[in-house]
Amino acid sequence: MPLRFDRTIKLARGPAENGTVGLAISSEAPYERWFGIEILSHDAGAVDLSRLADNSHPLLLNHDTEDQIGVLSDPVIGADRVLRVTAKFSRSALGQEILQDVDDGIRQLVSVGYFIEEIEEVKPITEPDVAGGQRTGWKTVKHYTGEEFDIAMRAKHGEGYARHGLGGRGAQDEPTYLVTRWIPFEGSIVPIPADPSVGVGRSAGVETAPQTAAPEPSALEITVLERTAMSTETQKTPAELEIERRDAIAALGEQYAKYLGPNDTADAIRNGKSPEGFKDFIIEKIQSKHSDMRATAVGMTAAEVRRYSLGRALKAAITGDWRDAGLEREASEAVAKIMGRAAEGFYMPAEAFQYRDFNVGTSSEAGNLVPTNLRTDLYVDALRNNLVMVGLGARVLTGLTGNVDLPRKSSVSSIGSATEIGSLSETNPNTAVVTLSPKRVGAYVQASKQAILQAAMSLENMIRDDLLMSAAVQLEYNFINGNGTAPQETGLRNTTGIGTTTAGANGAAPTWANVVDLESACANANAEPDRLAGYLVNTKTRGKLKQTQMGTNLPFIWQNGAQPLNGYRAAVSNNVPSNLTKGTSTTVCSSAIFGSDWSMATIGLFGAPDITVDPYTGADTGQVKITLNQFADFGVRQPSCFAKIDDLLAG
After folding, report:
1. How many whole angstroms separate alpha carbon 464 and alpha carbon 473?
2. Is 255 exposed, middle or buried (0-12, 13-18, 19+ CB in 10 A)?
3. pTM, entire model
4. What is the pLDDT of residues 408-430, one digit of tens each?
5. Which fold has domain 291-407+431-651?
6. Sign of the alpha-carbon torsion through 48, 53, 54, 56
7. Domain boundaries, the chain
8. pLDDT digits (tens, 9 = 90+) for 510-560
9. Contact at 8 Å (CB) between 172 and 37?
């Protein structure tokens, strides 16, 4: 992959018209980098404009691919050897906001991102021209391809050379490099040039700030991880560090190959990504591959979803006659192809999971019930514990087949002080893996064969609710309380490493201090609460908090509203236990949980629900046993993001 750089110049623009602005994005002005003076040649043929010429490459904000604010088009290099483009700003709120700042003269810097394909180390020479005078040119000292130059600079200056600021060795000592072949591929509006003194700079948000400026915290962290690993006796050479980095990335790439693209590992090695950065990249790949809730969807249209009938599929499974259930059979077979294995009974596709109201006026649901005086419209389902974890932000990975490993960093590197020539100890960040493997949860209902065949009552919604909701409630109970002993998964409350606070030796009524202590337990472990923070309590605790004041003459702890507890969201479910024991308080204590980032809780669903129909076990009584099996697991990627208290006396 060609070597990538960015540089920033003073924004020169034409008048705005219909959301478009003319931008000058590069010139031949010298630019001082860590490895020397860089000059971008604007000779004919030096600049490959093929990418910009397709009129679809982005105008970004601060080189952030998540913040595209427009598109670039119509690149041209003028007689003044300056590359200009037309930027069309997005009509989004962000695009219009930046356009207004440009028009007002507030945003005045534009940065170009480009790949280096060929580059030469050069020296200036003076030669006579045809008019008898003198002209200055360049003499090539050495020619490199972009990849050769990358290797040479890493060997000469160490890992991360391209992220450093100005050379600082003095202009007379700086080698000069002429980029003779390069490809611009994006432009960015940026707020801060790294070197305003030379008239051209680069985005301080993309590359580490120069040595004369304070580095960005994130850049500093990368520099520490990649450039300060020491042996117990002496500092490792840049070449040794590079070998270690490449080997670590290659090992990760091999281990998680099924989640990566064919060039992801090679690109990470070539682009100087750290092993920790590559692990973060892998996690994003795993999440993007499995977090799509349509993983077991089979492309059913809205009309087909409305036509899909669990009752019809059950009737067909009992009789063995699928002629009237062709849609349901095709859907099951489509899911089986996705999962790579046949169902024990039949699969329900993801589209069929959505709730459909029980409507008496719809013949396919309640209108065709045999007894006309049956008040099925007044049917009320059983009361169940609320399902809340997904609403809090727990990440769901669906359509899993094999085991899934989620890598995480469990501790950071330890940085120590040393004398001027003292040795430093080798240190490495510790990593861990959260493994999700299938664990079965099931539910079954029994119905008379006659009821199913005659549809004398609406089994469609009742069975759907009984099977799916019962399984879902049991799954979430396990995700919260599972003890990790087969066949249960390890639930959130029993996950090693989460914070723990207590109310008293024998438990105690919940107080404002307990609520704050849960938050502090996470914050003190550097898991500072974010937008996905929130509490999880049961109904007894909620009721007690509504009756308990923060202090004398102060408001009640539970405030109602969208953020009712300590300024955070709060979910309520009786899957949170109220039968725990602490000291002499036996089977009466309640639990409460705080999560600073609920996306760190990960739910894995393996395949689709498999429904089997057994007309034989209860054949003597004319009953059919309908069983649902779902395989799932739960894991916490960063346990320090959660804290619990298990001894609240809430009544």
Report:
1. 13
2. middle
3. 0.50
4. 555 544 555 555 555 555 555 55
5. Major capsid protein gp5 fold (3.30.2400)
6. positive
7. 3-212, 229-290, 291-407+431-651
8. 999 999 999 999 999 999 998 889 999 999 999 999 999 999 999 999 998
9. no
